[in-house]
Design a protein that fits this description.
Layout (H helix, E strand, L loop, with lengths): L2 H32 L1 H5 L10 E3 L4 E3 L6 H24 L9 H17 L8 H29 L4 H8 L6 H8 L1
Antiparallel strand pairs: 1-2
Length: 180
């Protein structure tokens, strides 16, 4: 077998491994997304009582006066947060950082729900999102301005310019380390 044929065979094997890895990861992500309706309805297994005692913990709902209602409220915030996180970590567009704004909003709502167990869960959250939005919105605008500046001065397609601005770590943990 010639050297050229060996290189071609090695490249073909790399593509098959990459395709298989992408297929497995894509299947896992699709399965997680498909199970979200079932995950949402897990709140129905929580009793409709003020205090929920299990062998692991005991929780008393002070404001809602029903752990069932609290579980329903939390499920309505965790599932969208879960889907937004999947979207954030799988998005390949240059604007994917804007998804951090609703992620921060839902995270804050979940935190406040558990912390206070009060009726003011969805109020005043914009105040806490302002620092996040103050960083993300100008960053996205500057990236967009740079893209359109390069479009006007170069003969590249929009996709080629988006590829220039991508700073994509090679794996899932690389993306997580990038933000924390």
């Amino acid at each position: 077998m010639s050297n050229k044929q060996q290189k071609s065979k090695n490249q073909e094997l790399k593509f098959h491994v990459a395709d298989r890895k992408g297929l497995i990861i894509g299947s896992i992500v699709a399965t997680l997304i498909a199970t979200t309706p079932y995950l949402f309805y897990l709140y129905e297994s929580v009793p409709d009582t003020n205090i929920w005692d299990t062998f692991l913990f005991s929780y008393e709902s002070k404001f809602y006066e029903s752990v069932f209602v609290l579980a329903w409220t939390i499920a309505g915030k965790i599932i969208p947060l879960f889907l937004l996180l999947i979207w954030f970590f799988t998005c390949k567009h240059w604007w994917y950082h804007t998804i951090l704004v609703p992620i921060a909003m839902y995270s804050y709502q979940i935190f406040v729900t558990f912390k206070q167990d009060s009726s003011n869960v969805d109020s005043d959250q914009l105040i806490y999102l302002i620092p996040i939005m103050a960083f993300i919105i100008p960053s996205i605008y500057l990236i967009r301005a740079q893209i359109f500046n390069k479009i006007n001065t170069a003969n590249k397609s929009l996709e080629e310019l988006e590829d220039e601005f991508k700073i994509s770590p090679t794996n899932f943990w690389g993306k997580i380390k990038k933000y924390f």
